[in-house]
Amino acid sequence: IEWIGLFLSELDLDKMRREIPEIVSSSSSINEVAERFEVPETLHQPSEDEWRVVKSQAQSVVDIADRLSNHENAIRVLANDYLPSLSALIGPIGAAKLVVLAGGRERLARMPSGSLQVLGANAAMSAHRRGAPPPKHGAILFSMPAVSRSPRWVRGKVARYLAGKASIAVRIDHFNGEPWTKEEVSKIHKEAESIKDRFPKPPKRK
Question: Which helix (H) or strand (E) holds 165?
């Protein structure tokens, strides 16, 4: 991407970062790339060898992105089948990550909700052992909008509530219970939102 920026200085690399590899890989010249992005053509043309390498690199990025997308889709299918309730609650990718971090579905199902809450917070837990405050959530729960978009003073409460529900969900999945419906999951998310409504302002410092 930065390589293309050397030739097309007016191209917004940050804004077009996703489109650049695909456009470059399917273009026949740097001028065609400029035309498709609607930016001025470059005064310094790459040599044939240089353009061939740039185009090859762009195609490699496209291929890798496609493979990653296929892998992610496969994980979604497996997680929805293996962890239907947990996937419905936190998303199939998040559910799969929790299982991996826990070392398996059974271990996750038998794990206390407090431990599930901080899965993925390795650095924060290490700091806690050295005297820092304990983490309020791990990376997986924080990736949920209900947690990450909550005010800092209420994130711990929301994370604790969702961790408790996630703990129930994975037990339902592991012990062959009836998977949660969309209505049940929606009710849980609404309750998580109501927690934020109950604490609109940060607590007063003592």
Answer: helix 152-174
